Amino acid sequence: MNNSISNIITATADKAEGALKENSVFGEPITVDGATIIPVYKLSFGFGGGAFDGMNSKNKASVAGGAGAGVTKLPISFVTIKEGEISVLSAEDPNKQSFISTVLSLIKKK
After folding, report:
1. pTM above 0.70, yes or no
2. What DSSP state is assigned to residue 59?
3. Are 10 and 68 in contact (CB under 8 A)?
4. Which residues of 49-58 are buried (b: 16+ CB within 10 A; e: fewer)?
5. Paired residues of 70 in beta bridges
6. CA 99 to CA 37: how far, in whole Å?
7. pLDDT band at residue 109 using 50, 70 and 90 as cut-offs
8. Is the dihedral of CA 41, 45, 13, 15 positive or negative?
């Protein structure tokens, strides 16, 4: 593989790796009125690339390539800690209003 093509693919993979660190799964803790809420995320990753290393229409050596990556970060649950009690709330609750009400009640409890 041509060195410039290899560089394109390596650079893209290196940048994508930065988005997939272990601290990407757990979000920053949020503390409100004595309750700590930690978001938990599902990460999805896709990567693709292609290149041409050959002769162009004028019989000159030609190199062309490209690569891309995408990352999706979706909240799937929340760990809550209040007064020593730990619980996990699913963000995939079919009744989203129920989920929001539960989170708000945890924050408001004293």
Report:
1. no
2. S
3. no
4. eebeeeeeee
5. 46
6. 13
7. low
8. negative
